[in-house]
Structures are given as C-alpha cells and as structure tokens.
C-alpha cells in the first residue's frame, strides 16, 4: 500500500478508477463461480488485488497522501499500520473508549468507527500534527503540567478530544467538561488532572 | 534519614511527558519492523472438551495469508508444558498455558488457531474462515454452584505458614459466642483490568535461536525467563522490550496464551509478527480479579472492642493453574482482635486463569472487612471512625512485632477534616437535598511495603551526563521520573543531566512492576549506584589533586557538577574533567533488602472517605466527593504520587458501582464483551479526588524511606462507597457492584 505524500489528488480520476473497479466487483458478484474457481486455482491473490484496492486521497497533518486502500480498512488502522502514525491509539475498535480520537475537518471523531475510504478528500489531524514544530500545543503543555495521564495510552485521544471540547464551547465548567469528555476513558483514572488541564487552557484564553 | 534534596518531594514533570502528549511514546504494537506481518487468534466456542476437527483450507486460500497454525502443524517448543505450571511454584514463574499443542479445550475462547497474513484486514478475514468441530464436555463456570467443591490451595497444604493457609489466634470461631455479634456474606463479581492498551506483542526471531519480543509486560525479566524456558533457549538469547506499557493494573504480571501463539507464528512465517488482542479477548485470556465469596463473623463488647473475627473466602481459579491472593491478610493485622480465624479456599472452574488486579486480594478482602466494621459500628451505635480508633493496633497482632512505621491515625484525622466527617449522621437516611440522599463512609486499606533485590547500572559520560539503566517497566506510575529525581539528588545534578532508561531485559535486573514495590526496590538500587559513582569521582579527584587526596570522605561535597572540599574553598574539581581524564566511568550495584524486615512489620496504610448522593427514586449513586489519605513513607514526586492515588480511587469507584464481568453459565462464555457492557468509570463518574500524604519516611524499608502507593490507592475505596451508600439510604449492599436495582 504505497503512500505518496505531497501529490495533489485527482478526484475525478480516482472516481473513474473506483467505478471501473466497482464494475469488476459487481461482475464478480454476479458470477460467484468465477471467484471460487479463481480462488481454487490460486488466482485469488490477483483477483483480490484487482478489486480490493480503492484509491483514496487524504490530507493528514497537512501532508497530502494518495493511497490505495482496501474498503474495509478503518481510518484508525490506516493511520497506524499504513502511515505509521501510531500516536492515535486502538483501545476497543467499537468507538467506546475514545483512544482513537482524531479531528476530521476539525470535528473530533472516533477513527475506529469509520472506514478510511469514507474520508476521501478530507483533512485529518492526529496528535502528531497538533504541536507547532517543537512548540507544544497549549493543551499538550497543560497535560504535562497537570500530569493529565499516567500510562499515556489514552492521552492522544484525550488531548484531541479536549482541544475539540474547548473549540466547541463545551468547557464552560468542570461539570460540562466531565460530560463532554466522557467518551474518552482513562483507566489509570487521571480524570481529576485532565479536567484541571482543560480548565486551565480554557481559562487561559489562548487560541486552541 | 537526612533530607535528601531539591528534587525528591517536588512535583517535577514526567521525564517522558513530552513523548506521551505528542504520540511519540512507542507501545508494543507500534514498532516498525521490516516485513512485519499480522496475526489474529481464533478462539474456541466451547468451554470444555476436545477439538474434534479443524478445517483451515478456506483460511489458507484467502488473500494475503501466510500461515494458519493449529495444534496439528505448530512447531513444538522444547519446554512446552500444556498443563501449565507447577502450582507450588511462585505465581509469576513459569508460563501459564502453552497453546496450539493439543486438542484439549480448557476455557471458552481459548486460542485454537492463529492466522498470519500480510495485513491486519486479511488476517482478520481469514480467521473468520477457520471452522472447528468439538467433542463437548460438561463445563463448570459458576462459583456459587461449585462452592461445596472448594479446596485448600496446594501451597497452603505444603506450607502451614503460607499467607493462604488457615490462620488462628485465640479461640476458633469465637465470635459465635460473643455478646454482640454479626455474621454476613459479601460477594465481589469477576472484574477485568481492561487497561486502555489492548494486550499486544510483536515477536521477532532474529535468528533461529534468538528471539526479540516487544511486549506488553510488567516484567521484562519475567517474560524473558518464561519464553526462554518455553523454547529451551539461554535467557540472554531472548530480549524483551517494554519501554511503554499502556496500563496493566496486574494483567501483564503473567505470560499469556497470545504471547505463546505470536512466538509460534513468528517462527512459522520467519518474519516479525504483530498480535493485538481485541477488547473481547481481553475478558477471556489475560486474567481478571476473581469472583470471590466471603463471610465475616465478628463480635464486640458493648463499649466497642472487637473480641473475635472469623473471615472466610472462596476465590475462583482455573482448572490448569492455582491462582491465590492475599484476600484475608488485612483482617489478620488491621484491628485488635484476640480471637481471629481466617480460612481461604479455591474453586477451579473452566475459565481462563485469574491474575492479581490492582490492590489484588487485599482490595477484595477489605470490601468485606471494612463493610463489616461499618456494620458493627452501626450495631454499636458508634461513629465508624471512633470504632476503628478503639481497635487500633499499635503493633502487628499477627506477627507480634512492631510496625516499621504507622501513621494511620494522622490519615484518619486529615481525611475526616477534608471530607467534613462532622456532617455525618449516625442514623442512616438523615441527610438529603431534594430527591438526593447524602451519606458518608470510610474504608481502610493496607499493603505490605515490599522490597525486592534490584540491580542498577550507572555511567558518568564524558559530556557530564549520567546514564542509568534498569530492566524495570513503567506501566504508568512515573517510575522513570522518580528514578531521575533520586539520581539527581544523590549526585547533586540537575535532573536534565540524568538519563534513566528502562523497560529492556538487557538492562540491569529489576523486579517485575507490581505489588507497589518498585520505588522501594529499584529506588535504593539507583541511589546506591549514584553513591558508587560518587566514590569513583572521589577516587578520580584524589589521583590528580593533593587536597582531595588528603581529604576525609565526608568533607567532599557534590553539587552542580563539581566536587568541593569543606573548609578549602580553592579545592574544586569538575565532574566532566574527571570523567574525560578517566575516559568515562561506570558502576554496577546489587541492592538487597536489609535485615529490618525480620524485626518489623512493614506496611503502607490508607484511608478513603466518600461522600455519596443517592437518588431516592432511581437508585442512581453519584460519588460527589472522595478523599484519599496515605501513609506511604517518603513521597518522591507529589505530582505523580498524587495522580496514582487519584487513579486508584477512580478504580475503586468502578469496583463499587459498575464493574461486573458476567458469564452465561449455559455456554460458559462472557456476555459482557466490550466496554459498553462492562462499565468502567468515565469522566462524568469521577469527582475531583483530594489526596493527602503523611509523607513521613520509613527508615526500615530502605534509605529513601518509601513504602509504596499503587495498591493502597484502591484498597478500601469500594467499602468506603458502600458504607456511604448505607449511611445515605439505610440499605446495606453486600454484593458488588452497587447498581440501582439493588437500591430501589
């Protein structure tokens, strides 16, 4: 699965390719016998390659990627396994823990709950893209200062969610923060410190 | 102990904080190795029996599949022992259960095949194509139904002094004849650790006899030992790396089936294999806090002196291992009781093995003991804090030895003040705000201040920095940060000049991170290594400088990168110059516990105070305030230590109010399969937890004066909440979790 950063996407072309491949898929669906035969004859690999790869163009942390991915690949697995952006964590695969939280076009989403191909043309920000070079984002600084983590595994998701929580205007009080951060589980139980970090960023009035 | 320092006791930021907030910390499934492959486990769908047949043809033909491995084609590890380990061995020694070696099914979801493919998606798809047929046998998965078959653990049979052997002082079961008595049964369900990081391993055979594991483990040395033994390799041929561990809470204290499977898979495909469990598999094969039944009988005099306690526990284990924990330890030493009986038994079920979960057995036992204390105080019409003070132990009644230190009364006072204990009413249900009933409760915790042998390596590098290395892991408490502070203070250097490296089995030997023992054990090793470095520096200074050569050892001072001499302002030697001249300097130390462990009983202590609000119509329980106070000896880092206390308290909220892993006994399979079914506390469930440390050094555990925090942070929290619920509602819930159905 090749990644070609900084290559501008040609969506029309992608779409045409996808349609062609979709036709192949449809054709195969109508003649299941062909697939079975192909599989039995060890042709499975080539057949699979023909219809499993879908073109996808994404901007991740400001870098454009033109990719070919299997439609069943989640955004989370694409980030972790194909783009080597392992800062986004896998904790459940069911959207229940929040460890995989990223921003898609500025909105916080559980990246495990959507397929990568659903985000064609969109801009993704992960934890690796939050700091400004060596300068940490205010939320990252506040998490360090308030010790808003222990093992660190839920932390990228907490921070991405916390930034969105402030931007959405849902960090008005301790109670509101707790409610709007409840999709991000911290099993180490650093909640007291996470809330303190978010409050400080909110009260500090810095641009997040 | 003289006050050490500038760093110890401060709230220095974590040394790895930046890595953790930028996503740059690398966990065990995140190592980029060339030719990496993906493994997915196929689990059994019965709880007991034999695999009659397994059809892997379709899976083998699926795109991208490199191997489908079952017991029929798996390479046999020379040290394979399918039935697990010898129950008389310590529990962290020897691997639990080698999988893919035979057709026997011992629990539901036991791995029966591992599929390896070039992508995760392809491996997962192909795993779904493996078909198995079983010869089913009747299984047993219910603790209550099997309680009549409970047995004394093998280690207790072999050693009557074992902590799980029957214990007696005074008369047996004397509570039965007491003037004022209570008898009650308490139950905790199975609870699952569920760290946010799923259990994961990347296994790589770098040569046919050389194995590297990037593994989620609390002990790099223990994992190395287990798999070296399993594969008949010299220990140094197995390298285990666990730099970052995404939480564990005990579930990485043991080697598990998925690790064995990944190592076999890597052998077969001869490429690195990455295997990450699903959340569902986290219930079935990497341990849990066992479902435990307990009974307490207690008697007291009318003026509130306990005369007798009998505490019995029956815990759950698997059919292939005997898991035990110290469920009854706190009862034997916490309160004066001239007559005391404890009995611990096990029931073996067709479920995967349990493993210690934070606070382990002590947290289970404390739920019963501290609930019973509250019940007795209520019977006596006494304030529960006053009742505990009347039965306070000034020395250890179990071993008849003095405490090394005990500042629990200070904790009681600090906690009572902070929670507003004076607002508590003796009569339950007396406080309310609208539809919310308000109650206050307390629970006490204790855990042994354990210290194990630990080594440490230290080098003073020519650039003036110090490199320390230890095989110890850091599962979240901030071990690396605490060790950096200890080294900085001992050497008189800024923390920025210290680099502490951890989580690698090739570094100096250290104990497994668990049992609140790491700062107690590795801390003194780091301190001693730094003291040895200072000796080296003194020697180096003496060789080139007559003033230092003539000086007495105690007159040489170390600060800010220089050696100076008391009373001789001109004598001054730069560390860096000395090291450059010597071409670097390195020391290795082996730090062992002293003899005081035989003279004193060493424990950390905690007390937790909870304020709860219970909705009188819906039965919803909200923990509105939680204060945790600890006598944990010297606090190395108030920020990370405080965080650990707060986190342990949140774990206690889960235990008290929501955590319950439920098995459908008809199928012997968990019905709670994910975090939507198995609830753990989220932000909205946790109040801001207030923490108080006595922060008095214990001179007997080690020279730093530490006693340990991890366990006492959780032990006693669940009963504090249960007692507060009683105080709010008058309803005594003796079976956790306290869900609304039990209150309405």
Overview of this structure, please?
The complex is a heterodimer of chains A (208) and B (744). In chain A, helix 5 (138-146) crosses helix 8 (191-204) and helix 6 (155-167) packs parallel to helix 8. Chain A is built from 8 helices and 6 strands; from the N terminus they run βαααββαβββαααα. Chain A has 2 domains: 4-129, Ubiquitin-like (UB roll); 138-204, [2Fe-2S]-binding domain (DNA polymerase, domain 1, Orthogonal Bundle). Chain A has a 6-stranded mixed sheet. Chain A is elongated, with a radius of gyration of 20 Å. Chain A has 208 residues and is of the alpha+beta class. Chain A starts with a strand and ends with a helix. Helix content of chain A is 43%, strand content 13%. Chain B is of the alpha+beta class and 744 residues long. Chain B folds into 3 domains: 17-22 and 452-592, Aldehyde Oxidoreductase, domain 4, CATH 3.30.365; 37-138 and 196-247 and 252-284, Aldehyde oxidase/xanthine dehydrogenase, a/b hammerhead (Aldehyde Oxidoreductase, domain 3), CATH 3.90.1170; 147-191 and 288-450 and 598-742, 2-Layer Sandwich (Aldehyde Oxidoreductase, domain 4), CATH 3.30.365. In chain B, the strands form 8 sheets. Chain B has a 7-stranded mixed sheet. In chain B, helix 6 (220-230) links the parallel strand 10 and strand 11 (238-241). In chain B, 61% of the residues are buried. Mean pLDDT of chain B is 95; it is low at 90-95. Classes of the chains: A alpha+beta (208), B alpha+beta (744). Chains A and B meet through helix 3, helix 4, helix 5, helix 6 and helix 7 of A and helix 1, helix 3 and helix 18 of B. Chain B: It comes from Hymenobacter negativus. Chain B: InterPro entries: Ald_Oxase/Xan_DH_a/b (IPR000674), Ald_Oxase/Xan_DH_a/b_sf (IPR036856), Ald_Oxase/xanthine_DH-like (IPR016208), AldOxase/xan_DH_MoCoBD1 (IPR008274), AldOxase/xan_DH_MoCoBD2 (IPR046867), AldOxase/xan_DH_Mopterin-bd_sf (IPR037165). Chain B: Keywords: Molybdenum, Oxidoreductase. Chain B: This is Xanthine dehydrogenase family protein molybdopterin-binding subunit. Chain B: Residues 22-138 form the Aldehyde oxidase/xanthine dehydrogenase a/b hammerhead domain. Chain A: This is 2Fe-2S iron-sulfur cluster binding domain-containing protein.
